[in-house]
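# nightly structure sweep
# worker-07 picked up a monomer target from the shared queue
# config: single-sequence mode, recycle default, output format = structure tokens
# input follows
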Amino acid sequence: MVDDLPVLLVAAAFVLHLLGERRAATRTGRPRGRRARRRGLTFYAALLTILIALTGPIDALAGQLFWVHMIQHLLLLVVAAPLIVLSRPWASLWRPFPLRWRRPVARTLARSPSWAPIRALARALNRPPGAWLAFNLNLVFWHLPGPYDLTLQNTYVHILEHTTFLVFGILFWAQVTKAKLPYSVRIGYLAAAMLINVGLSIVLAFAQHPLYGPYAQLAHRPGGISALADQQIGAGIMWAFGDLPLAIALALLIHRWLTTQEAIAPRVAELAVDPPAVVAAGSPKTRSGGQPDRGQPAARRGRNAHATTDNSQSGTGSLSRLTQAVRSLLAGAVTGPWGTFG
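# output follows
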């Protein structure tokens, strides 16, 4: 029964989502739009990824080969989790339940004093510092020798590990798609997570002996490789493929940021050439009825205006050239259909 749990949960999520989408189409009286269908397909791709990770050959070999176990972890952390975030399936999963049941449950979760600590924890985890710490501390914790060995020896602990990977992965990636967060915050958020993954990979790759007892104690393993070679291959997979989705998201955010800066550059230049007429009361400009200082020679005023225009145009041109250069490098790798990183 425990071995069938991933299949049962994935099947339940699939059926709930289908029913939720059908109910939404019935209530609106028209088929789901292109964006809703695209998100639905994204969610089904996430469910398929979970099935691939937790059933079949990958799950069977994960107890014998460390590098296969790393593939299993990465499928949950950096493939299934961001796909779920992009698909936004929560309303569709909630909609099939009866309204007479949904309302009291929602009211209890939102207002009950007994749930106040849970709500406070959820708010903390739904902010960048909390989500980042939960994701990375959880990643490091489960790769310590003690907890890792326990996951290989106890099925229920292994289920807990995979559950936390998926839950904290969803919380982590949800921060990346929050448009209200400045681009600089989201870029730093991803870059810092990449450093943690690289550091953990380096520790595993350059260890002088196998760190995990159950793998080291195996007399034979598929492929005939040693436990240390197996660990080093797994470290390489974690380093390369663990950072790849983070790097793609990072490049996409940089691309969007540069595009935004390029869009506002003309307005900045306009303000530099013709700043708003906001001056202090009693200043010479106010006393002269909002006109430039009458005591300044016309020629000097003309030279100053010309210099301001040249400087503004030069700065804008430099920014535009830099933006175009970086965008040309990134555009091919970061184009996506969802547009949720904006």
